[in-house]
C-alpha cells in the first residue's frame, strides 16, 4: 500500500520540474530580448536625440559605446554576484537597474546626464545574457540543454525584431523621451519574475554544501585544462561578436554603395539575413543536443568561413538575398550554443561568472568589428573587409579543435 500511494509523486515532481524549466526559460529569454531591443531602439533614435540635444556625431557615437562599456562591466560584476546570491535574484536586479536608468534617460537635459544614464543602464543590461543562460542550463534536463540555450539566444532576435517593428510606429507619436519612458516596463517584469520563480535546485544544493563559496573568477583558470577551455571560449565569443557587429553594422552600407540599393531595399535584404540568423540559432540547439557541441560548432564555423567569402562575390539581387540568409544562419547561429557549452565546462559556483566574463570579453573585442571593417573597406574595399571576416572563422575552428572539450549532456556539478 505504501508503494502504491507513493507512485503519483514521481509524475507530479516531473510536472513541477517541467513547469519550473518553462518559466526559467521565458525569464531568461525576456531578459536577453531587452538587450537586443534596447540597442536597436537607441540606434533608431540617435538622429532624433542628436537634433533635440544638439549632440555632435562623436557624442552620439559615445552613447552607444558607453552603453557597451557599461554592459561589459555589468556582465562581469553581475555574473560574480549571481554565483554568490542566486540566479533569479540577481537577474531581477539587472533588469530593475536597466529599467530605472532607461526611464531616467527620458528626463535627460543634455549630453552628460544622458551619457551617465545610458552607461548605468548598460551595466544592468550586461548581466542578463550570462545569468539567463546559467539559469536555463540549470533548470533544464541535460538532453535538452542546447535547445534551452538556443531558446534564450532567440530572445535577442525577438527583441531586435520588436524594436524594428515598434520604433517607427511609436517614435513619431511619443518622441524619444516617451520611448525611454517605455523602458520602465521591465521593472514590472522584474517584480513579477522574482515573485513567480525560485532559484534552481542545483544552485540551492550547491549553496547548502558551500554557504560561503570562494571567489568564482579564479575558478575560470584553476588548472591547465580549465584555463585552455577559458581561452578557447573567449576566442569563440570574440569571433562571434566581431563577425556579428562587423556584418550587421556595415551590411546596409555595403548593399547601398556597392549595388546602389535604396534604404528600404537594403533594410529588407538585411532583415532576411536576420531571419536566417534566427533559424540558425534554433537549428544549432537541436544539432548540438543530437550530435554534440564540438561537431556543431565546427560545422557552423566552416559554414561561416565559406559563406562570408562567397557572399563577398555575389552580384545578383536574388543571390544576395538567399546568400545573406544562409550566411546569417552560420555567422550568428553559433550564439545558440554558448550557454550550454559554457555551463558544461564550469561548476555551479562559477557558472554565471564564466558565462558573463567570457561572453563579455567577446563583446568587448567584437565592439571593434565595425571599426576594423570600416577601416579595411576604406583602405581597400568591402570585399576585402568581408574576406578578413571570413578568415577569422578559421581561427575559430582551430580554437574549437585544440582548446574546447566535448561535454554534451553531462550532469552539471
TrEMBL record:
Q: Name one GO cellular component term.
A: plasma membrane
Which Gene3D superfamilies does UniProt cross-reference here? MFS general substrate transporter like domains (1.20.1250.20)
| PROSITE patterns the record matches | MFS, SUGAR_TRANSPORT_2
The record places domain Major facilitator superfamily (MFS) profile at 24-408
Q: What are the transmembrane regions?
A: 24-50, 62-81, 90-109, 115-136, 148-168, 174-193, 229-247, 267-285, 297-314, 320-341, 361-380, 386-404
Q: Where in the cell is it found?
A: Membrane
Q: How does it sit in the membrane?
A: Multi-pass membrane protein
Question: Could you tell me which InterPro entries the record lists for this protein?
Answer: MFS, MFS_dom, MFS_trans_sf, Sugar_transporter_CS
What name is this protein filed under? MFS transporter
**Species annotation:** Pandoraea thiooxydans
Amino acid at each position: 500500500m505504501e508503494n502504491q500511494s507513493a507512485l503519483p509523486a514521481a509524475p507530479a515532481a516531473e510536472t513541477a520540474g517541467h513547469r519550473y524549466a518553462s518559466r526559467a526559460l521565458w525569464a531568461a529569454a525576456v531578459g536577453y530580448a531587452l538587450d537586443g531591443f534596447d540597442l536597436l531602439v537607441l540606434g533608431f533614435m540617435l538622429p532624433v536625440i542628436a537634433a533635440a540635444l544638439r549632440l555632435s556625431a562623436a557624442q552620439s557615437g559615445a552613447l552607444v559605446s558607453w552603453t557597451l562599456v557599461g554592459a561589459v562591466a555589468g556582465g562581469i560584476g553581475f555574473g560574480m554576484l549571481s554565483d554568490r546570491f542566486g540566479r533569479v535574484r540577481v537577474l531581477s536586479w539587472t533588469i530593475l537597474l536597466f529599467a530605472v536608468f532607461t526611464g531616467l534617460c527620458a528626463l535627460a537635459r543634455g549630453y552628460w546626464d544622458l551619457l551617465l544614464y545610458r552607461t548605468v543602464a548598460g551595466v544592468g543590461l550586461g548581466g542578463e545574457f550570462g545569468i539567463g543562460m546559467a539559469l536555463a542550463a540549470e533548470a533544464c534536463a541535460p538532453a535538452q540543454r542546447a535547445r534551452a540555450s538556443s531558446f534564450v539566444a532567440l530572445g535577442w532576435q525577438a527583441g531586435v525584431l520588436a524594436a524594428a517593428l515598434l520604433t517607427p510606429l511609436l517614435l513619431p507619436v511619443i518622441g524619444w523621451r516617451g520611448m525611454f519612458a517605455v523602458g520602465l516596463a521591465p521593472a514590472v517584469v522584474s517584480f513579477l519574475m522574482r515573485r513567480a520563480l525560485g532559484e534552481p535546485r542545483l544552485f540551492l544544493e550547491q549553496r547548502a554544501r558551500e554557504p560561503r563559496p570562494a571567489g568564482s573568477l579564479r575558478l575560470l583558470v584553476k588548472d591547465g585544462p580549465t584555463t585552455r577551455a577559458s581561452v578557447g571560449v573567449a576566442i569563440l565569443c570574440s569571433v562571434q561578436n566581431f563577425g556579428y557587429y562587423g556584418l550587421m553594422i556595415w551590411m546596409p552600407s555595403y548593399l547601398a554603395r556597392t549595388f546602389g540599393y535604396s534604404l528600404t531595399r537594403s533594410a529588407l535584404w538585411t532583415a532576411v539575413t536576420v531571419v536566417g540568423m534566427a533559424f540558425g540559432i534554433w537549428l544549432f540547439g537541436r544539432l548540438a543536443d543530437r550530435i554534440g557541441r564540438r561537431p556543431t560548432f565546427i560545422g557552423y564555423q566552416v559554414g561561416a568561413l565559406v559563406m562570408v567569402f562567397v557572399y563577398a562575390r555575389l552580384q545578383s539581387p536574388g543571390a544576395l538575398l538567399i546568400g545573406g540568409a544562409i550566411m546569417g544562419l552560420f555567422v550568428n547561429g553559433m550564439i545558440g550554443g554558448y550557454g550550454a557549452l559554457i555551463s558544461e565546462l564550469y561548476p555551479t559556483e562559477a557558472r554565471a561568472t564564466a558565462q558573463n566574463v567570457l561572453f563579455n570579453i567577446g563583446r568587448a573585442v567584437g565592439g571593434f568589428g565595425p571599426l576594423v571593417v570600416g577601416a579595411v573597406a576604406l583602405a581597400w574595399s568591402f570585399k576585402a573587409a568581408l574576406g578578413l571576416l571570413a578568415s577569422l572563422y578559421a581561427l575559430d575552428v582551430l580554437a574549437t579543435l585544440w582548446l574546447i572539450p566535448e561535454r554534451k549532456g553531462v550532469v552539471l556539478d
